[in-house]
Structure formats: structure tokens, C-alpha cells
Amino acid sequence: MFIGKKKNKSGKVSVRIFQKVNRTNRLLKTIGCSSDPNEITRLVTEGYQWIEEHSGTTSFDFDGKKCQASQVLDMIDQLTASGVELLLGKIFDEIGFYQIPDDLFRKLVLARLCYPVSKLKTTAYLARYHHLYLDVHEVYRYLDKLHNTQKELVQDISYRHTLKILGGRISVVFYDVTTLYFETEEEDELRKPGYSKDGKPENPQIVLGLLVGVDGYPLAYEIFEGNKYEGHTMLPVIDGFKRRYKIRKLVVIADAGLLSGKNIEELTKAKYEFIIGGRIRHEHSDIKKRILDLKLSNGGCTVITKEDGLKIVISYTDKRAVKDRINREKGIRRLEKQVKTGKLTKASINNRGYNKFLSISGTASVNIDYNKIKEESKWDGLKGYVTNTELAAEQVIENYLHLWKIERAFRISKSELKIRPIYHRLQRRIEAHICITFTAYKVYKELERQLKENGAIFSPEEAINIAQTIFSVQITIPETKEHLNKVLILTPEQETLARIFKF
What we know:
This protein is α+β, with helices and mostly antiparallel strands. Helices cover 43% and strands 22% of the residues. It has helices at 37-55, 69-75, 83-95, 103-114, 119-130, 136-146, 151-165, 234-244, 261-269, 285-292, 318-341, 370-377, 393-401, 404-414, 427-453, 460-467, 492-501; strands at residues 2-7, 13-21, 24-34, 59-62, 65-68, 76-80, 172-181, 205-212, 218-225, 251-254, 273-278, 301-305, 311-316, 358-360, 366-368, 382-387, 471-476, 483-488.
């Protein structure tokens, strides 16, 4: 059954109820007629009530118009996975990425969040679930255009949004690098073999430097040649960020892998304040003696000032001491097994990992130097931080502990967003791929923030999975040829998500 409206010669509109029988519309009841729009609306509502009372079936509300469930299947034109756009598209716009006028950019970013695969498989995903039919070469041509047109705008939008949610001020930034490998053996000026953090030393790679703010909100990124020393990437990224946004004062926080005399000299010369993870076991002997003489209790910390004016904040925790001991014991057990089997040779003696405890005896056999292990154990539980700030020791440690959030950013990019491996060959497409993933990570972080702010029990991954189960149906009323749409919210999880994000 359905409702039909017919305009009579008198100008009045008749509201009637029909039922389709063998492709013929049979009139069941005339509800009434009127020329008053409000009265017509009332008559239509009365008609729907009559249908529900006499049909015993459920009705669906399409844009304020009710249709019987039994009739809907015959009228469906299109079923679309709309939850992704309703959730992630909404956040994409709220951040400000709508300022990028390319609809394909939007589609590629949302697809990266939901179905992070190759560009060829992405085109199949967009066709299957979003009725967007693209040849993969169209995507490649778009990447060629994107690489040098949108990176700066993307970073500007991300910066402005981060500035807003952090209260209008960014004074502390966190920097780290990772490596991204390629499924190929070919190298070029950008893709080069180097120290791989992905455990893929045989693959050419690039180095990605990422700058984030408090809570891991992304601010800027840069890519470098795969064989570039990570310590040489920090200053170009930070300097560029500071100049671009005219920031007067920045505190830079980075891990010990970026600690070098040259970096510290350049940071100091550029008048940056910094907190960098310290390699306290590599300090001069007098500093090391002072550290070991401290005898700190659990949770204790102190400051040692070096001759050059830099400070080393030293902290100790029982938990870290236990972890250091357990890890070392595991490593020693592996070495002992290798020594027994004779697998270790002179070439095995190096400073990598626990091999530093190996030594060679007069008989040219490789042994474990247990005196070295005893000396190593004195450092259990101790950690150092090098800084030139005036912050108290506790504040230095607290700020440094936020560094794990940038490590989490890399983990999310590599796992949930699958930024690696990269299948592109041309540098401009590689840069476009990184730009899309950076934008996707920004949307992910804002989704995470809003979920937390609203007290949701869903993780970002769970929210995205739920959104992918939300569909919209479009129907066409046969009599009027009118197109109607409805978002199908069918489960409690979907209802919760729709309530939080108001769709």
C-alpha cells in the first residue's frame, strides 16, 4: 500500500491510498481533499496511520514520507555504504580539509582509513561500495598532480586545527623518524638501502621524519633519502616548521637516536630549547662515576650539570630495573646456547645488542665476559635526559614521556593505515601517498579525540568498522518518480555512533 496525491481541476489535492495488484494500482480509500498545505500534510499523516492499522506491516520513514517495508524492496534503486562518509567525512570537513577542492583526494583519504590497500584495490573498493568507477590510471594521474599542490595546504590545515584544540599555542613539539620500505630491489636518488627499522635491509627505503604536538597531533612531515642518517633530518623539519608558522620559541623533544654533538650544537645555535634522550653509558668516565654514585631510590631523580652547561636529568625506577635485568638475562641465555653449539665466531664480537658481552680467549674461542655483565647490571633502572631548559627534573621527565605518542603515530600509520610497503616507483607518487596517509592519520586522531571527549567505549578502529556497516538506501516512488533516501541505523552500536556524531 502507498499514498498518492492528485491535484483536481478545482485546485484541491486528493489524498488517496492505493495497493499494487498485478502491476495495477487499486484504489483502497480516499482520505480527503484540501487546498490548504497544512491540511494536506495532516491528511497524508492520517493516511499512513490507516495503512499501518490495516496492513500489519512496518513502515519506513524516507525524508518524512512513510513507505511500507513490503514495498521498499521493489522500489530500491541503490544501496550505498554511507557510514564512512557520515562519520569520517564529517570529521574530514570539521578539521578543514574540505578546503581541498578535489573530491578524489577526499575519497582516497577515507579509503585509506577503511581499506588501506594498493591503489588498484582501492579503485575496486570505491566502485563496489561507493559507486565511484575509476580506472587506476586516473588515480595515478591524480597522484602526479597532488604531490606538489596539496602538501603545504594539508599541513596548514592540520596545523590550524591542532592549534585550536591545543588552546591556541604550540610551544612543545616531538620529533622522530622511521623508515618505509618498497617491494622492489630497484633504487634511485630517493629510494636507497639503509638502516631499516622495518627489518627489511634488502629493500630500498625512504626515511620519514614526523613532527607532532602534545597528544600526538600531527604538525609536519618530510621525506628523505633512504640512506640518510636520521640525526641529520631533525633540523630541516623543525626549522621549516618554525619559519612557516612564525613560532618564536619551541621546546624540541626527541629520543636518544637523534642525540649527537652536531645536533645539540645546531639546536643551541638556533636558540631551541630541547629535551633529548641521553646515552648515559657513553658519557665521560667522571660523569658515569657521578651517576653510579647517586644511589637513587624508586622514582627518584636528580640533575647533573656538565662542563658545557648542559644538564643531564637522571631518574631511577624499580620497574625499569626489573625490565633491564629480565631483558639482559634473556639475551645472555641465547648467547650461552650459541657458545655451546660453537656457532659464534670472531666476527660475532661487536657492540650490537648483547654481543658486546662476548670476548675471545687465547685459544681463539669465543666466550661470554661475565665481568662485563656485572658492570652492566649497575645501570639497571637508570635513564638519562639531556636538556638545556630551565625546567625542573620532574617536568623534563614528564615532557619526555609524551614521546611515546609519536611512536604510536608511526605504529598506527604502519598497521591501521598500512603506509608501508609502498608500491609506487615515481617520487611524486611516493610523496602523494605520504600526503594522503598524513591526512588520514590526522582524521584518525580527531576521531580518537572526539570519541574520548564523548565518553564512547569504542576505539577508533571499532568506530570505523561500525561505520562501514551503515548503509543508505535510495528508492523511487513509482507513481511520482520521486527519489527518497534513508540511512539504515539497525543496531545499538550504530545508534550509539549516530547519536555521538549526530547523523
